[in-house]
Amino acid sequence: MKNELEQNFVELLEKHQNIIHKVCRLYTNNYDAHNDLFQEITIQLWKAYPKFRGDSKFSTWMYRVGLNTAITLYRKSKRTITTQDFEGVSFKMKSEEYDDTEEQQLKVLYKAVHQLNDIEKALVFLYLEDKDYREISETMGISEVNARVKMNRIKKKLRTILNP
Amino acid sequence: MDELDLLKKDWNKKETHDKLSAKDILPMLNKKSSSIVKLLFYISVAELFFWILINSIPYFLSDSYRERMNMVYSDSALVGLTIFSYAVILLFIFLLYNSYKSISVTDSAKRLMETIIRTRKVIKYYVLYNLIMAGVSMIIGVYYSLHNDPEAVSFIEKTGDKGMMIIIGLSVIFTGVLVVVIWLFYKLIYGLLLKRLNRNYKELKKLEV
C-alpha cells in the first residue's frame, strides 16, 4: 500500500518537477542550494501527500507547498547565506548595461527579480506561471485587491531597478 | 509590453535544471526534513523536559532541599502545588500538540506563518510561566529563610536591618539576573530561528494596511 502511494507520488512529481525547479531557481543562487531546497520541498510534498485529495490539481497543490516551503519552512544552509548575492556580487544596475537586445534585457531582468524580497518573488513567480489574481490571493492569503496593488508596485520597483 | 511580460515569455521556455528521474526522487522521500517547524518541535520538547528536570531533580536528589521544601510547605500545600505544576505541564503539552497539528504546509502562506507564530507563542508562555514561578519560589524561599532558617536568623540578629537588606538585595539581584539571562538566551534562539519568517510575515501584513 505504502509502495503504491510512493510510486504514484514519485510518478506525479517526476512529471511536474519543473514547478519545483522553478521555485528553486527563484529562491536560490547556486547548484547546491537549489538541490537542498528541491529536496526539502519534495519532503514536504511527500509528508502532505496522504492528505492530498485530488480535488485540486496536483500541480496547483505543488505551487502552494513549494512556495510555503521556500518562504516559510526552509532554513537556508550556511553556504546559501554566504552566496546570498546573486553570482557572488551585489547587483548594481548601471543604465548603460541596459541595452536594447532582448537577451541582455532578460539577463538584467532575472538579476533584478533576484533582488526582490521573498514575498515579492512569490507574487512574481505566480504571475509568471500565469496564475490569475484569485489564485495568487488564495495562495498567499491576501485579498485580490491587495495582490493586484502589490503586483503593480513590484512592476514599478523592477522598472526602477532597471532604470535607476 | 512591460518588463514582466517580457520575462514571462522567456520563463516557460527554459529548462534550468537537469531533469530528475524517479530513481533520483525516491531516496529523497526518506531524507530528514530540516524545516523550521521540525526544529521548533525539537526545541519545544527540549524546553518541556528542561523545566520538568529543573523543577524535579533537586527534590529527588538532595535530601536537604527536600527537607526544606517539606518545611516551607505543609503537606497539603506541597501536594496542591505539585498537582498544579503537573496540570500546567499537561495543559502546555495539550496546547502544543494542538498548535502543531494546526500547522499545514497546504494552507495559504499567511495562515501557515500565523500557525507557526502561534506555536512559538505557546512555548514562549511556557518559558515565561517557569521564569515567573522561579521568581516566586525565590521570594517565598527568602521570606521563609529570613523567619525560620536558624543560620539566617542568627545572621540578622548579629547584623540587624543591614544584614536583612543585604540578603534581600542579593537574592533579588541574583534572581533578576538569572531570569533576564534565560529570557535573553531564549529570545536569541527564537529570534535567529524565526527571523526570516517574521520578516516575511511583516511584509504580508504590510499589504493589508
TrEMBL record, chain A:
Keyword Transcription regulation: yes
Keyword Oxidoreductase assigned: no
Top-rank lineage group of the source organism: Bacteria
Keywords: Sigma factor, Transcription, Transcription regulation
Biological process, per Gene Ontology: DNA-templated transcription initiation
Location of the RNA polymerase sigma factor 70 region 4 type domain: 108-158
Classification via NCBIfam families: sigma70-ECF (TIGR02937)
The name this protein goes by in its record: RNA polymerase sigma factor
Annotated source species: Seonamhaeicola maritimus
TrEMBL record, chain B:
Transmembrane parts of this sequence: 39-57, 77-97, 126-146, 166-186
Keywords of the record: Membrane, Transmembrane, Transmembrane helix
Listed name of the protein: Uncharacterized protein
Organism: Seonamhaeicola maritimus
